[in-house]
């Protein structure tokens, strides 16, 4: 047998390095910020050093349907790393179960978001200075905008920023927001929607990572107005990607403006699946985006943290 490094060997964990005095002493550092409920651990050095060499495989284009433009990395993060990353993020990030009221046609409805969420980042008009204070991107003057008052923005912690850096170089896109969803079981879901808010600008690119259990990602074309008059328009058919741990889908071009996507609930024997984390990187260009993302992904309710003993999210008290 040749000793050549095969594709298969690439997907296996590298051999464990001897635990020298030096490695044993390594302490995991944290990212701190006045608006974090608790310091957030940085990635273990082994994971951080391997993340820079991603993606594990190049992306394949999926653009064989009208208005659809995806780049699918199968996987982006090899399985052994994805498992460690999943466990790490579930234990180390603050999560929220957001509830809010919406008014449709004069009727107010109470919505309970059917998954755990969290968000970090700041739109392009502002940045965090060295002390973590929100300042104007251009002038460096302290930002006093009302948009930032209700929900104080907080920077992307290093454990997610390391991933942002690799995905920016792999895709050529720039991102300033990181949203995280945790689907604890098949009962958690996200209904059909598109991420084409005005605050993302036209044709936004969104990089979406999956970690943990496999879930179906469904896509369908938005209804075309006056369909009878556009009979020449090529037909589109719904799409199902069975997103596995470590995979990444870059949605770009007209995908958000023309298509909807969802993660449907799973019932029966597939319901207790051990959980799935989704991470999306996006770029918000105006302050309204910051307010919106914190409103719907952090909200004003309690902070939760994963309890490794009871294996459930528990209210976190400072
Ligand atoms: O969990 C996923 O893969 C999709 C999440 C999503 O669509 C969103 O957060 O906007
Ligand atoms: Fe989405």
TrEMBL record:
Region entry Disordered: which residue ranges?
1-22
Give the matching InterPro entries.
AlkB-like, AlkB-like_sf, ALKBH2, Oxoglu/Fe-dep_dioxygenase_dom
Question: Could you tell me which SUPFAM superfamilies the record lists for this protein?
Answer: Clavaminate synthase-like
* Pfam families listed in its UniProt record: 2OG-FeII_Oxy_2
Q: Where is the Fe2OG dioxygenase domain positioned along the sequence?
A: 174-285
Q: Please identify the protein, giving its name as recorded.
A: Fe2OG dioxygenase domain-containing protein
Say which species the protein is native to: Bionectria ochroleuca (Gliocladium roseum)
